[in-house]
Specification:
The structure is a homodimer. By secondary structure, chain A is an alpha/beta fold. The longest helix of chain A has 17 residues, at 14-30. Chain A contains four helices and four strands. In chain A, strands 2-1-3-4 form a four-stranded parallel sheet, with helices on both faces. The first copy, chain A, has one domain: Rossmann fold (3-Layer(aba) Sandwich), CATH 3.40.50. Chains A and B meet through β1, α1, α3 and α4 of A and β1, α1, α3 and α4 of B.
């Protein structure tokens, strides 16, 4: 089983965290056979935190987890904090294939995506 | 003249702020006749700040400024801090049409954009 896990910053505003959870659900609906589940976890403030998010994927049967940092630019959180959390998880769950992709701001299609939103 | 202004959070990491400035340049390259200029400003930490970013657009000849908050979810910054800064700018530059779009995380195509980055 292959899980996709979005990692977002986390906010004190419930509506903001809910946006991320809603996005995970929408992605799950279009993921087809690519992922068996799509969920979210938060670096700070909101729950579940990253270790809990990863553990829940594994408890649900994931043998592979693809992680996408839902961040726009590679600040300290993307460059240091998230890799540190993921490295810990990798060493704790050696039997699970955990792969972290670049943050979504690094997607080379971002300029097109942004201008399409402005035009739309 | 119509300017597009991205507003990002701002980071202590220069590379992170540079990512935003690079993005603005890439968007300018594909904006065609839609925008005469594309630039960026930062809510916190980095320069230019929002009032300076708006003033520079106007000094460069902008009579209309479209602002896109380069944020993924509507936390406090998107819900309160950026609107407050923009409202101030609107009252200070009454002769310029300043329009703020939703944050990019609200783009209804975000699920497709995200899954395309995972697949790609």
């Amino acid at each position: 089983m292959h899980a996709l896990l979005l990692i977002a910053h986390g906010s004190r505003r419930t509506a903001s965290n809910q946006e991320v959870q809603d996005l995970a659900r929408k992605i799950e609906a279009i993921a087809g056979s690519q992922f068996d589940s799509v969920s979210s976890a938060f670096l700070e403030i909101a729950e579940p935190d990253i270790p809990t998010g990863i553990r829940r994927c594994i408890e649900a049967g994931a043998t592979a987890i693809t992680i996408v940092p839902y961040f726009l630019s590679a600040g300290r959180h993307v460059a240091e904090d998230i890799p540190r959390e993921i490295n810990k998880a990798v060493s704790e769950h050696a039997d699970v294939k955990i792969n972290c992709l670049p943050h979504i701001g690094a997607n080379p299609s971002m300029p097109d995506f942004l201008i399409s939103g402005v035009s739309g």
